[in-house]
Amino acid sequence: VQLQASGGGLVQAGGSLRLSCAASGSIFSINVMGWYRQVPGKQRELVASIDSGGTVYADSVKGRFTISRDNAKSTTVYLQMNSLKPEDTAVYYCNAVTTGGRVWGQGTQVTVSS
To answer: 81-96 pLDDT, tens per residue?
Structure first.
């Protein structure tokens, strides 16, 4: 499985961005897809994930971020980020949990200015 992330950028506080993550390769092996984020000096943290059972969100983004996918095959996953805050600034990584292990996409920078 390969993951291609896109959609990061610079936005003012209160604004919105949408991240996309396109999966290719052995997509039938994907069980869960999600987004993590990391700031320098801190551990990478889960932002949101989605699988056949539903969605999971970090408490810090509940009510502001929405994860979705284009179809049941999980080929593309989106993260709609609304009401962005400066503390959402981070490198965001797409992630897939497959039958063969965990796969990471390249990071995409999200910067929220105050």
So the answer is: 999 999 999 999 999 9
